[in-house]
Specification:
The complex is a heterotrimer. Chain A is an alpha/beta fold. Helix content of chain A is about 45%, strand content about 20%. Chain C is about 60% helix and about 10% strand. The chains are: A alpha/beta, B mainly alpha, C alpha/beta.
Chain lengths: ~400, ~290, ~650
């Protein structure tokens, strides 16, 4: 029985239509189920939107003819083990042009080494903690096929700390979830506070678990120690529980945290208690530019929603596909190694919804991870929650982006 | 240490504890009649909450939604009994443990696909604003949870004591064989207990959803605590769950405050293993004599 | 016999060869990754099967042991600088020790309580791994490099072969263990812990050993897991994984190495099976066909209940219909798994491999292994010379249950070689007295002396070891074991090979000897021809005789027969009488509790009559029958008593 199964499986794998050369194969991976699914699915849907547009226009010109993009979808469930297996599967495909996706740092750590081994180009988006890139600089990789297209934690935490300092706070509490994401967010915050001159005193550090609904103890501890603001790192519903708990305990201090605070599962569940919460954003669901307008409308129409579950993820997924497509065009090849080389030196600017990407990546330098990071501090803005929507916290940012786009 | 803070934490913890107690009470109902419990009870809470939310979305008024949700819970309880429990009880096997776990898996996956993977808010007419009692903040929602828990348990306990059907329930719990000899159908009584248990689960879902939000994973953290409460209190001890539930809830809050929030669950779990080792039938449970 | 060995071992070797040769023919890191995971999960599930299958307890801690083992191995490499083998040793040891520690409190529990205790343990283990971030790296996870093997680095196929060798070793060791006395003991204590103790086998240590062993395999699998993924995070080892593991064992088939392996393949391959639409449709259609075939056959032959026949068909039907309606089957993976499992648990309680094994056994006509010829009864139960001395003495024995004085100061002397009758009306305290002697209850006061030495109290196991053996009024057989295994299990002094050698398969000789001895005892009670029959499938009378044979395997100084004739048909009663006579001829002392007065009269040298927990008369059967106090005690039934009409209890 077992042998037949394996035989069928092997057969199935080899018999899968491999029209090499006919299409450009891109794998979309990420958590499409489980706790971080809103990010994974928004990214996937944003990316699919871009791919549909590209295919509708006939595909990408490679050599003499135009090739369409074929999608390979893999759900890693946010589980490291699945991440490793998917990494192995993708690495052994042979005719894969590239991979776009990932949310969970653990999954990236478990899976990407298989891709790097075979030199398969991957753009990490919409998220994944710092370790996803630092692992390569630490290992001293001479050459790297992994790129990151996300506002890395360094940018985010520096903005969060900056915001707290600008608002003249001196005592803050850090709350974070007990996962890899929360723990590395905490470390980055501590790091940034030091870097920005130790102007903030951390009076309390508290954790919460995924699924926790009662945050009274954590909040009271922060309150008792005189925190003036709460810096938070987590994903979705638990942070809503924090906001609701703060309202209950009459704690009128601001909540500042990572970009995940802009996800619908925070906004909806915190309701009016979420008003005023601040977080860095790479994209705000507001049609300030024509490109953003068509993207937002396209997303709403295609997926029949009135609001994108995670606008940041969707926009990053969308732009990542266009950047990848530009690299294919420049390389004039669907060979993943050539695409990698092209990505490291993109000559033409790519117009995306987040902004216009000019030379986003450069040749990998193990001493400087920034070479494979697309986002800079100026690509991110501070967002604020207002009556169930994310808006620009500073009007200046909004004007700047409009101006940039019209240039 | 500020006494206010300790009091606040104890009260908040205790209120969560009451929810554990209510779910644990659902375990007791079925354990009493059939010596079985539904390991998918958490999913039952979650499914009922989603169903109630759908009713609200369809425009059903809140107070009509409540009986609707309860009926759904009872119906699901009966499904569990028929599909997962009855056969193994007839075969005197412990297959029900696996089958109810499987039911939970199915329910979870169905909810994920039907209602989505995201947490959603659950509207409630009761105010979520905090009120101040001697320096302790309590929200209207929390008070409604406490009232709801006692109401449901009180009504069911009254039903068991005052009605003929309830007495049959007690008889089967006390001695199944003897009750059958007296013409009481154990099968029907077990069905009744699963229906009631489903209803209790639905009530728990409706009560806590406005506080915790509704999502496929909403009950997975709760259910482990409810297990602990039921086992530490004893699976046959009625109101013992309330005492243990309140204690566990308060203990969790205090541990979280003093030891660090990561260790929040630890004392409860250690307590559970110890309680089981010292008093396998629970703190309030009756010891049984081995017979041959 | 040869055919059996050829087929069974042949399949194993062919499977091993096939698995080992895949990396040589297929150069695909993904296939290799799947296979490696398959071997790791194979080891894990074999370990889980010890508790779930053999001990019959729902164990929810195996995922935690996987995690603990993984972290132990990783830390011994990163912190202590151990090599691969050393680290794997550490991870096994961690599983063994923690498993043993958890087993002590947890194994006093049964059913749901046990499941909950293990569930709490896993939650606790994840909490500790997550919170002890100084050591484990906490939620950030722990990265490690696969250590070298004596200076030689493993590539992917090399590591896969290592895992495969481990699986093969575990497989052989478990096969040896489960075929030995240990395996019988595991199964016995699932069916009747009381009888396991009463046969001197020891419930507790076998349970603890079984659990610790299963956990150590979990630890070993964890070590391999760590070296396979080279990155660990606490949240990989939670309830979610545990449920899948548990269901894998059940789906594959409990109490079967092949079942565990099959379950592991399913877990590993399931996501791939579902992502291929065609394959999914084939599987679901095949499942439906199987459910319909098995269901209608069961329905026709009336071997299954209607629900058992119908429910799997409904579930698989749902799967097929759902398969057409749902756009993305991968989203519904858990539901699909649940439906398949539901069908298997309800329709094929032995799991897929259990079902397949039965079918294949018939297809290839694999006969069970042949039995040795029975030993000489004189070697098994040597004739005892009775010197009419005192064997057992009860001194003012008391046992109260709250206010009820069930035994209230009994004094009694049993002489060597006698059949000592113990009679009295219902509720007079006979059974309680016997339960106190045999150690089920501790006495409230008083003493029990065997050959002048105080018997241990309150422990069936210790009393059994001291030379007292018993049968039970309500049968306590090991239903899932064969008649032969029931007797073999209790065989005193037959098993001396220590555990490590058992694992190496060096206990076969003593197993054969025990088998031959057990056959001799089955012959004594007339069950030699039914040695292979499961105890639960024997007739009621045969079950009673089997209990006697099993008790005799203890080679007891004193044999207690608790109402052996209860419920027996008349012809069986005469068989019983002749069996007891044979036993007496061998010089074994017996206490016989019985209501059938003619049996008592025919067999007993001395009779003690008890009423209200006290001795009211003692003497030969005829003497006590005439005793006015006895007549008074039995009053109401006195008219019948005069004719000594047997009154079945």
């Amino acid at each position: 029985m077992k042998k037949t199964l394996i035989a069928t499986l092997l057969l199935g794998m080899f018999a899968s239509p491999a029209f090499a050369g006919e299409t450009i194969k891109i794998a979309l991976t990420g958590p499409f189920s489980g706790g971080s699914a809103p990010m994974g699915t928004s990214m996937r849907d944003g990316a699919k939107l871009a791919i549909t547009e590209i295919n509708a226009a006939g595909g990408i010109s490679v050599g003499a003819k135009k090739k369409k993009i074929e999608i390979i979808e893999r759900d890693d469930e946010g589980k490291n083990e699945r991440g490793a297996l998917i990494g192995q599967e993708l690495a052994s495909m042979g005719d894969l042009s590239g991979v776009i996706g990932s949310v969970n740092t653990g999954v990236v750590l478990a899976g990407d080494k298989h891709l790097q081994e075979k030199g398969i180009t991957k753009i990490i988006t919409p998220a994944a903690g710092s370790a996803s890139m630092t692992q390569w600089s630490k290992a001293g990789a001479k050459d790297l096929s992994i790129f990151r297209f996300a506002a890395h934690d360094g940018i985010q935490s520096s903005m969060v700390v900056e915001e707290a300092i600008n608002q003249k706070f001196t005592k803050v509490a850090i709350l974070h979830d007990a996962t890899n994401y929360g723990a590395s967010g905490h470390d980055d915050l501590v790091d940034q506070i030091k870097k920005q001159g130790n102007k903030l005193e951390i009076v309390a550090t508290e954790k919460f678990n995924i699924g926790d609904k009662d945050m009274t103890a954590q909040l009271l501890s922060a309150k008792a120690k005189g925190a003036q603001a709460i810096l938070i790192w987590g994903i979705g519903p638990e942070m809503a529980a924090v906001s609701n708990g703060m309202a209950k305990l009459g704690m009128k201090m601001p909540l500042i945290g990572g970009w995940t605070l802009s996800m619908s599962n925070y906004i909806d569940n915190a309701g009016k208690n979420g008003n005023g919460t601040l977080m860095p954003q790479t994209f705000i669901e507001e049609a300030i530019t024509p490109k953003a307008k068509s993207f937002i409308e396209g997303y709403h129409k295609t997926y029949n929603v009135t609001r994108i579950p995670s606008p940041v993820s969707a926009a990053q997924g969308y732009d990542a596909v266009y950047i990848f497509a530009a690299a294919v065009k420049q390389a004039q090849s669907d060979d993943t190694h050539k695409i990698k080389t092209a990505l490291e030196d993109l000559r033409e600017p790519v117009k995306g919804v987040i902004g216009t990407w000019k030379h986003p990546f450069s040749k990998w330098d193990p001493a400087n991870e920034q070479t494979h990071e697309a986002f800079r501090r100026t690509d991110a803005v501070m967002g604020k929650i207002q009556d169930g929507h994310v808006v620009f916290a500073n009007e200046a940012d909004r004007q700047r982006l409009i101006k940039n786009a019209s240039k | 240490m500020n006494l206010d803070i300790i009091a606040q934490m104890a009260v908040s913890g205790a209120l969560m504890g009451l929810v554990y107690a209510l779910i644990a009470y659902g375990f007791q109902l079925t354990f009493a009649t059939s010596k079985s419990i539904n390991f998918g009870q958490g999913e039952l809470v979650m499914l009922s909450a989603f169903f109630s939310l759908t009713l609200l979305d369809l425009g059903v008024p809140y107070w009509l939604m409540v009986p609707g949700g309860l009926m759904f819970g009872a119906a699901m309880g009966l499904v569990v009994e028929r599909a997962c429990v009855r056969l193994s009880l007839e075969q005197k096997s412990e297959g029900w443990i696996l089958l109810t776990i499987i039911f939970g898996l199915l329910g979870f996956s169905a909810a994920e696909n039907i209602w989505g993977r995201d947490d959603r808010p659950f509207p409630s007419p009761i105010s979520a604003d905090a009120m101040d009692f001697f320096g302790i903040s309590i929200t209207g929602l929390e008070i409604s949870v406490a009232i709801g828990v006692f109401l449901v348990m009180g009504v069911i306990e009254l039903f068991k004591r005052r009605t003929l059907m309830g007495k049959a329930f007690e008889a089967v719990s006390a001695d199944r064989d003897a009750a059958e000899l007296m013409g009481i159908s154990a099968t029907h009584t077990i069905m009744l207990s699963y229906g009631l248990s489903g209803m209790v689960a639905a009530m728990a879902g409706i009560l806590i959803s406005p506080i915790t939000t509704v999502g496929p994973t909403m009950a997975s953290a709760l259910i482990l605590k409810a297990f602990s409460v039921a086992v530490v209190a004893g699976l046959d001890s009625g109101f013992g769950v309330v005492v243990i539930g309140i204690c566990l809830g308060a203990l969790e809050s205090l541990t979280s405050f003093y030891l660090g929030s990561g260790w929040r669950e630890a004392p409860g779990l250690i307590l559970l293993i110890l309680a089981l080792a010292v008093r396998p039938n629970g703190v309030f449970g009756k010891a049984s004599i081995r017979k041959v | 016999m040869l055919k059996r060995i050829l087929l069974l071992r042949g399949t194993e070797i062919i499977a091993l060869m096939l698995l080992a040769s895949i990396p040589l023919t297929v150069n695909n890191s993904y296939v290799l990754g799947l296979l490696t995971l398959l071997t790791i999960y194979g080891i894990l599930l074999i370990g889980l099967d010890v508790t779930v299958g053999y001990l019959g307890q729902v164990n929810l801690a195996q995922a935690a042991f996987l995690g603990l083992g993984a972290y132990a191995a990783a830390l011994s490499v990163t912190v202590l600088g151990f090599g691969m083998m050393g680290a794997l040793g550490v991870s096994m040891l961690i599983g063994l020790v923690l498993g043993g520690l958890l087993a002590f409190p947890a194994l006093r529990l049964e059913g749901p309580q046990f499941a909950l205790a293990t569930l709490s343990f896993s939650a606790l283990a994840t909490t500790v791994l997550n919170e002890w971030d100084g050591l484990t790296g906490g939620a950030q996870g722990l990265s490690l490099n696969r250590p070298d093997f004596f200076g030689h680095a493993y590539d992917a196929p090399g590591f896969y072969w290592l895992c495969l060798i481990m699986l093969a070793l575990v497989w052989m060791a478990m096969r040896n263990l489960l075929a030995s006395q240990w395996g019988r003991a595991f199964e016995a204590l699932r069916d009747s812990p009381i009888a396991t103790d009463a046969m001197g086998v020891g419930t507790f240590r076998h349970k603890v050993a079984g659990f610790a062993l299963g956990s150590s395999l979990g630890g070993l699998a964890g070590g391999l897991y760590a070296f396979n993924f080279q990155y660990l995070q606490p949240q990989s080892f939670t309830y979610d994984l545990m449920v899948i593991l548990l269901l894998g064992v059940v789906l594959g088939g409990r109490k079967s190495l092949w079942g565990a392996f099959f379950g592991a393949s399913l877990i590993v391959l399931l996501p791939n099976l579902l992502s291929n639409r065609l394959l999914f449709e084939i599987i679901s259609a095949a499942g439906l066909l199987l459910a319909v075939a098995a269901g209608s056959r069961g329905w026709m032959k009336k071997t299954t209940r209607p629900f058992q026949a119908l429910a799997p068909v409904v579930a698989m039907g749902l799967l097929v219909v759902g398969g057409f309606m749902v756009e993305n089957t991968e989203n519904w993976r858990k539901a699909i798994f649940a439906l398949m499992l539901f069908s298997v648990v309800v329709g094929l309680p032995d799991g897929i491999m259990g079902f397949a094994a039965r079918y294949l056994t018939r297809l290839f006509r694999i006969a069970p292994s042949t039995l040795p010829s029975a030993s000489n009864l004189d070697d098994v139960l040597p004739l005892k010379q009775s010197d009419n001395g005192v064997l057992l003495e009860l001194k003012d024995l008391k046992r109260y249950f709250g206010g009820v004085k069930a035994v209230d100061g009994i004094c009694m002397t049993v002489r060597k070689g006698h059949v000592h009758g113990l009679i009295g009306p219902n509720g007079s305290g006979k059974s309680t007295a016997v339960n106190v002697i045999s150690g089920l209850y501790a006495p409230t006061a008083g003493e029990v002396l065997l050959l002048g030495i105080a018997l241990p109290t309150g422990s069936l196991f210790k009393v059994a070891r001291a030379g007292v053996s018993r049968t039970f009024q309500n049968l306590q057989l090991f239903g899932e074991l064969s008649a032969l295994d029931n007797v073999m299990l209790a065989m005193k002094g037959a098993y001396r090979v220590p555990l490590p050698l058992v694992l190496l398969g060096l206990s076969k000789a003593e197993g054969h000897r025990a088998q031959a001895d057990a056959l001799a005892l089955l012959e004594l009670v007339g069950l030699k021809d039914q040695a292979r029959v499961h105890a639960k499938d024997l007739t009621y009378g045969s079950q009673r005789f089997l209990e006697i044979a099993r008790a005799l395997a203890r080679k007891p100084e004193l044999l207690i027969l608790d109402e052996p004739a209860a419920g027996l048909a008349h012809p069986d009663v005469s068989v019983l009488v002749s069996i007891i006579k044979t036993i007496r001829q061998r010089g074994i002392t017996m206490i016989l509790i019985e209501h059938h007065m003619d049996v008592v009269s025919e067999l007993c040298d001395v009779v003690t009559v008890i009423d209200s927990g006290q001795v009211i008369a003692q003497g030969t059967a005829d003497e006590v029958k005439r005793d006015p106090k006895v007549i008074k005690a039995y009053l109401g039934a006195a008219a019948d008593e005069a004719d000594a009409t047997p009154v079945p209890a």
